[in-house]
Amino acid sequence: MRTSAVLRLAAASAVAAATVVAAATTASAHVIVDPSSVPKNTTDQTFAFRVPNEDDNNSTVKVEIDFPTDHPVPSALVAPVPGWTDKITTTKLATPIHTDDGDVTDVVSQIVWTGGQIAPGHYQDFTVEFGALPEGTDKVVFKALQTYSDGNVVRWIEEPQAGQPEPKNPAPVLTLTAATADDGDSPSAAPSAAAGAKPAPAATGGTTTTAAAAASSSDSTARGLGIAGIVVGVLGTAAGLLLGRRGRGGDAGTSA
Fold this sequence. Notes:
Layout lengths: L1 H27 L3 E3 L2 E3 L5 E8 L7 E7 L9 E3 L6 E15 L2 E17 L4 E8 L8 E3 L1 E6 L4 E4 L16 E5 L22 E2 L17 H37 L1
Parallel strand pairs: 2-12
Antiparallel strand pairs: 1-3, 3-8, 4-7, 4-10, 5-8, 5-13, 6-7, 9-12, 10-11
């Protein structure tokens, strides 16, 4: 009877571990902007639009990021991504944005990357540097369209709402927190997947092409695996205790 209980407990351990890993992977498998939160007066900050491939059989072959025009980003530089070509589209503002470097009348409204591939089980960071952040808002909502090699397009355009469950296809959201006490010239560090990339100026119709990129597994998946390991360890300890008790019971019967 105790042997059956131990087997059932071991099976439950495996199921629990698999559930934790699956939950962690599912929760992170959508397009995000990294970092996702910065002070409002941050300048010259590097961001990465992280695009994971959720399809088991097809590669991602096109990524489109649409910038908001109601609270536009005054200026942006795009870092070259090996194997990909970027195309930047700008739009003219009805009311110029006043900055320390002068009035800004043209802002980036869309960036599209094509020519490369994100294989199943991988992700790619697309790095952009913002010279300044929008004013008069606490968040910047982008819209992302992800095209697969079979023609399927996933639209990450649903804006998450406070107090509501996360939508099926959430849009990347950059949260703007209270301004810091300094002048806003905070140094920025490029995301790890794009470290060392030199930004190229954004311009209408501009393109950049380089060699193929290597992708790495996501940090969130690693955290999920760590949680799964803890679950397995705890349940494995319980299984060991049951086996120990069974062994002691058998010794007692022999001595008697």
